[in-house]
Amino acid sequence: MKRFLLSFVLLFFTFNTAFAQKDTEHWIAPYYVSTSASGYTNAVYLSTDSTTPVTVQIFSNDSNGNYVQLGTDVTISKGIPQTVTIPVAMISTTSSTEAGLPVNKGLYIKGTKAFFCSLRAAQFSHGEIVTSKGKAGIGTTFYAAAAPINTASTTLLNFTTGIMATENGTTVTISGYDPGLNLVNISPTPTNITFTLNKGQSYLVAGLANGGANSTGFIGAKIVSNKPITVTNGNANGNFSIPNGGGSDLILDQSVPTDRLGTDFAMVRSLSPASSSEMEGGIIIATENNTEIYLNNVGTAVATLNAGQFYRILDANYVAQTNGHYNMYIRATKKVYLYQLVGSNGTATGGYNYIPPLNCFLPRKIDEIGLINEMPGIATNTITLKLNILTEAGATVTYSINGAPPVTPTTAEGPYPLLGNTNWVTYAITGVNGNLAITSNKAVTAGVNGGFSSAGYGGYFAGFSSVPVISKQTGECAPGIILEVDPGYDSYQWYLNGNIITGATSNTYAPLVGGNYTVRVTMGGCQPVVTLAYKVFSCLKETTKSSETCGKKIIQPVFTSSPQAPVANTVKIITPPTHGTAVVNANGTISYTPNTGFVGSDVFVYKFCGNDPEFVDCEQVTHTIKIVPIVVKEPTITACQYDNDPTAIFDLTLANVTDYTSPFVKRYYPTLNDLNTNNNEITEPKKYASAAGYVYVHISAEGGCNATTKIKLEPIPVKRSPVLVDKFICIDGRTSLDAGPGYDSYQWNTGATTSSIQGVPVGEYTVILEHNNCFLEQTVHVKKVQDPVITKIEITNNTATVIVSGGTAPYKYAVDGTTTWQDSNVFTNLSRGQHTFYVKDAYVCDPISVEVTVPNLINAITPNGDNVNDYIDYSELAYKENLTFVIYDRYGNKIFTGDKFNNYRWDGRSSGKKIVTGTYWYHINWNEPNAAKTPIKYTGWILVKNRE
Question: Which domains, from first to last, does the chain contain?
Answer without folding.
Answer: 6-354 (no CATH), 365-458 (no CATH), 471-536 (2.60.40), 541-627 (2.60.40), 636-713 (no CATH), 727-784 (no CATH), 788-853 (2.60.40), 855-944 (2.60.40)
